[in-house]
Every structure is written in structure tokens, then in C-alpha cells.
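Regression test case RT-17, inverse folding.

Input:
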């Protein structure tokens, strides 16, 4: 015995499929034709901050050298430094004539002392680099400013 579906069911299925197909095609994106006649320019609310070097005139970094036999005791004093607009941290790098370079944050605007010992007998030249930084709150992004460089000489 074979089963024969009534014709009305086939037409209902065909009509439903056709209706779904038409609805799908009606919602599909089609090519858009547009004509632009004006020229405009948008401005951004974001930009890059310029962090200049600390002002040399407002910076007072000195060196004091004391000899003790063959040893030399060196003290570098950061008495003051120029503030940088938008900087929220400052960093100093001290470059000795020999040995490792020292880089540290300055957490205040004055009164920072760095003391070193050396066995050099002759005049010793030290260098420093000072810069303002903007550390973006809540993330690890840091914007580095221009560097103020200088040299200090023991006599």
C-alpha cells in the first residue's frame, strides 16, 4: 500500500517556501547610489600632547665631590627643576663616567639627593637627562616629553 499526499499540502509547502524566499530577498542589502556634493572636514576631540623639556632656567642640579684618599664621594643634588605642562611624573637619568646608568622617578619638585662612590682620582664628568612624563591614569600608557640634558664635573 502506498501513501499519496494530498495536493493541497504540496501547494502549501511551495507557497510557504516562496513567501520565505521573497521575505529574505526583500531584507537583503542592495547597492546604494549616492551623490556627495559638499566638501567638509571633521575635527577630532583627541590629539597628541606636546611635552616640552623642563626649562633649563628653572632647573638647579649640582654636583659635590669630596676626595677621601683614593676614593671619591659624589653627591648630585636636584634642588629644583622646571615644571612641564600636562606632565604628572618626572624622570631623571644619571649617567656616570663608568658603571651603570641610574634612572628613577622624581616624586617631588626639589630636594632629591643621589650619592655615589668612585675610585677615580682625576676630574670626573657626569651627565644627566631630565624629562616630564604623562602617565595615563588606569592604564600602562606613558607619554614621554623632550629631554633636558646637562653635564656635571667634579674638580
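Golden output:
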Amino acid at each position: 500500500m502506498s501513501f499519496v499526499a494530498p495536493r493541497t499540502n504540496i501547494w502549501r509547502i511551495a507557497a510557504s517556501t516562496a513567501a520565505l524566499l521573497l521575505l529574505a530577498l526583500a531584507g537583503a542589502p542592495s547597492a546604494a547610489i549616492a551623490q556627495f556634493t559638499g566638501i567638509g572636514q571633521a575635527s577630532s576631540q583627541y590629539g597628541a600632547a606636546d611635552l616640552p623639556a623642563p626649562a633649563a632656567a628653572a632647573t638647579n642640579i649640582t654636583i659635590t665631590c669630596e676626595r677621601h684618599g683614593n676614593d671619591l664621594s659624589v653627591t648630585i643634588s636636584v634642588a629644583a627643576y622646571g615644571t612641564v605642562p600636562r606632565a604628572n611624573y618626572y624622570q631623571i637619568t644619571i649617567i656616570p663616567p663608568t658603571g651603570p646608568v641610574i634612572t628613577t622617578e622624581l616624586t617631588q619638585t626639589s630636594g632629591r639627593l643621589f650619592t655615589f662612590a668612585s675610585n677615580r682620582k682625576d676630574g670626573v664628568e657626569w651627565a644627566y637627562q631630565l624629562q616630564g612624563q604623562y602617565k595615563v591614569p588606569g592604564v600602562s600608557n606613558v607619554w614621554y616629553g623632550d629631554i633636558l640634558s646637562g653635564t656635571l664635573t667634579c674638580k
